[in-house]
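Q: Could you predict the 3D structure of ABC transporter permease?
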Amino acid sequence: MLELKPMLSALWRNKVPAMLIALQLALTLAIISNTAVIVKDRIAKIERPTGIAVEEIIAINVMAIPNNYDMIGAVSSDLELLRKLPFVQDATVTNQVPLSRSGSAGTFYNQPNQEIGGEVSNRYNTDPNFINTLGLKLVAGRNFTSAEMQYFDPSENRDINVAVITQQFADKIYPDQDPIGKPLYDGNTSHPIEIIGIVERHLGAWVDWPKAGNVAFFPIVRNTQDVNYLVRAEPGKRDEVLKTLVEKLSERDPQRVIRTRVLSEYVARSYAGDNLMVKVLSIVAATLSFIVALGIVGLTIFWINQRAKQIGVRRALGATRSNISRYFLIENSLIAATGIALGSAAALIANQYMVRDYSQPVLTLLPLTICALLVLVVSLAAALAPALRAANISPATATRSV
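A: Sure. Here are the predicted structure tokens for ABC transporter permease:
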């Protein structure tokens, strides 16, 4: 404590460089603390469960060449072929590929003829094999039956009678109620669609959508010019199955253009922006920490060179090496504490604007504290080597150097 007064006096005499380092530390803390919550939010988003056996699924797009092609008839034959292939667990038909950033949505209500208060949901047209093919978990009710399937042209407008929905969508459309057996109304209509089953999770088409996880499935196949199949291979056999799919489908009917892609590629594309943001922000935080560490090293060395005579005198009067190194570490801690205090305030103020204007996650006390401790550790680590160097200055050398 007796050293504190001369430390403050020394810092006051060199207040400009000390304040510059404190401001640099403050800026670093403000940036990396807000960066940390953004990175944490993106990582949590990337790692959230999809509800789908992503690594086992192959997506196939089949586009017919003739304008009058019978796609409904082709779907039945194609699925029969696909399900008989070696190492194939199951196959299903769908109007859109999950997690592909392409799909359709609609507004649904729990009362007929409503115009407000509905819930928006991603919607899929599929068949009874979709649960097993995607690896979904049925948590309530039942799946579709073959008798409930409807096949019709796009121009036809038929009533849908049953639906399977995700648990998240069920909680939104019927909060605090059992939705099984209850009606679902597609837009401003009076025809009820009975909810017959609930699957635990399915993120849907758009991972960035605020309502990702609101999904409804309907037993429909439309006679369109193109169709999507999803094929689930046995674990570890996906690539082997992929090699034979196009060949077998082309052999069955050459009047189509067939394109395949594994579902994991769609997922990688959907999260490409989030992964890039995590990498860039991590590099920025590391670079800023390195730069501030270099500044602290340079300033500490500068001060040691300036005080070589004083260090020699203290050593001659009996100061130990630990006394000398501790002096510079404590002095550096005072600068760091000032920077951390300023940086904490700046971080919280900046975060308020980011939350309000850019919908970024809120900076809470825990990540701010962790980042503040990290900045303090970087500061002390940067000052440690110069402080140990100062402790090794001999009294005679220090005296002769001035």
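Q: Anything worth pointing out?
A: The first strand starts at residue 57 and ends at 64.
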